[in-house]
Write a structure and sequence with these properties.
The complex is a heterodimer of chains A (251) and B (204).
Chain A: H1 9-12, H2 15-30, H3 35-53, H4 57-64, H5 68-81, E1 86-90, E2 93-96, H6 97-123, H7 126-135, H8 140-143, H9 145-169, H10 180-211, H11 230-249
Antiparallel strand pairs in A: 1-2
Helix pairs in contact in A: 2-6, 2-11, 3-6, 5-6, 7-9, 9-10
Chain B: H1 21-49, H2 55-91, H3 97-118, H4 127-153, H5 157-188
Helix pairs in contact in B: 1-2, 2-3, 2-5, 3-4, 4-5
The chains are: A mainly alpha (251), B mainly alpha (204).
Chain lengths: 251, 204
């Protein structure tokens, strides 16, 4: 689930407007556990992503399946601890109706949040995020770190994989075994070389970045500046309208 | 390991805020390291506790967040704490990711403030000081994590208290491991050690 270049409406939208919409969706999802409200919100978010970014629900359905065990666990937990009339008895354990409804509500909430963030990540490049953070008043020196981190994440993942492979080549059972206890030991052995690698690598990279003007003071110019257009305002207004509908329509 | 190993850490130069490029970039790499580690750990925690109590994660995060906060001050604390939620948000890999900005910072910021308050210029931290600092960070993290679980997941308070208590021994074990690791890191020469004693002037 990472950025995919494209030319849809959401791809062209200013990241600040998208962050505004995300915050609205988060606020709406976090202020209720009502199943009807969350189901409508889920439908609106999924439909908006399909219409404005050509992201069809089946394209992220498999990725969202990882949340399902969490939802089942939460629903079971809530069904056991929430008081109220019994909905069903499984293996002699009574599951309360309010608990099941609350668990499903929280599950829907997580789905809404997951889909909204998926839409944002697919349509917003890390460099656009950096620019938006800079426009929000954060010095570019720190705002740039968002895209920097994304650029170097695969390198660190490769390093971890190499270290694990090296451990398994030395017949260590700690690297890829099914037993979690030796795997934890293997992980702890991984931390020190990774820390040393991070400290050693940063010196050269910092020097090369400074040579390219990373630490220079003064106003910066950008090859692709961000502009908040009328269409971005319309998108934000649509998100605010959702809040109004929630307050007056589903109160 | 001798008894001296378990007494006091070698000295290093602590500064509350670091702005030099090397420190900033190092902190990003430390943040990426914890992100990569957590990608593996989440699967182990899922196998051990169904993901309900992050016991292994609470042990391993100490090994990276504490050195980052102690060696690189607030810069290290905030960057290493926020890289993981940033990546999680931008890859939509964690529905709770927005909340991790608060929980992670709740772990690292108290550590920086306590190191700032407790570490003298002339020596490193004693073992008990170090463990106490690491534990306060873990407690603050558990408190904010519990608050998030209460607000977002509506988990019952009894479960949240149990979750927080279950994470503490793991964080303590992580503290001992981190102490040894920080000792070794300080000996590698990759961390800026104190070049000036308590009586000398700070170099310009």
């Amino acid at each position: 689930m990472t950025y995919r270049p494209g030319d849809t409406f959401l791809h062209r939208t200013d990241p600040r407007a998208k962050v505004g919409c995300l915050l609205v969706v988060l606020a709406l999802a976090l202020t209720t556990t009502r199943l009807d409200v969350l189901a409508v919100l889920l439908a609106v978010v999924a439909a908006a992503l399909w219409a404005m970014a050509a992201i069809a629900p089946w394209s992220y359905a498999r990725a969202l399946a990882v949340i399902v065990p969490l939802i089942v666990l939460l629903t079971l937990l809530q069904a056991l601890v929430q008081p109220g009339p019994v909905l069903a008895t499984v293996a002699g354990v009574a599951l309360s109706r309010p608990g099941v409804l609350l668990g499903l509500g929280i599950g829907l909430r997580l789905l809404v949040m997951g889909i909204a963030f998926h839409g944002f990540s697919v349509t917003t490049s890390p460099s656009a995020v950096s620019l938006a953070v800079h426009k929000a008043g954060i010095p570019y020196r720190f705002a740039y770190l968002a895209s920097f981190a994304f650029r170097f994440l695969p390198l660190l993942q490769d390093e971890a994989r190499t270290l694990l492979t090296a451990m398994s080549l030395r017949a260590s059972p700690d690297a890829y075994g099914a037993n979690p206890v030796p795997r934890v030991r293997g992980l702890l052995r991984l931390v020190f070389p990774m820390l040393v690698g991070a400290l050693r690598r940063s010196g050269d990279i910092a020097l090369s970045m400074e040579l390219r003007g990373y630490g220079l003071r003064g106003a910066r110019t950008f090859t692709r500046p961000l502009r908040f257009r009328a269409s971005d305002g319309v998108l934000l207004a649509g998100a605010v309208a959702l809040v109004a509908i929630r307050i007056w329509g589903f109160s | 390991m001798t008894a001296a190993t378990w007494s006091t850490l070698p000295n290093w130069r602590f500064r509350l805020v670091r702005r030099d490029t090397r420190s900033v970039i190092t902190c990003v790499f430390l943040g990426l390291t914890i992100t990569v580690m957590l990608q593996i750990i989440e699967r182990i925690d899922l196998a051990l506790t169904g993901g309900s109590i992050p016991i292994i994660a609470s042990m391993v995060v100490v090994a990276i967040w504490v050195p980052a906060s102690a060696f690189y001050g607030l810069t290290g604390a905030l960057i290493t704490a926020w890289i993981n939620p940033l990546i999680s948000n931008l890859t939509a890999s964690q529905p709770m990711a927005p909340f991790l900005f608060f929980t992670n910072a709740a772990h690292t910021i108290p550590i920086v403030l306590l190191v700032w308050a407790l570490k003298p210029r002339s020596r490193g931290l004693r073992l008990w000081e170090f463990l106490a600092i690491a534990q306060v960070g873990a407690l603050a993290d558990a408190a904010v994590f519990g608050l998030g679980n209460h607000v977002i997941m509506h988990l019952p308070s009894g479960f949240i208290v149990f979750q927080a208590l279950a994470m503490q021994p793991c964080a303590l074990a992580g503290g001992f491991i981190t102490y040894v690791m920080m000792r070794r890191l300080l000996k590698t020469g990759l961390v800026e050690t104190a070049r000036w004693g308590s009586d000398a002037e700070e170099p310009v």
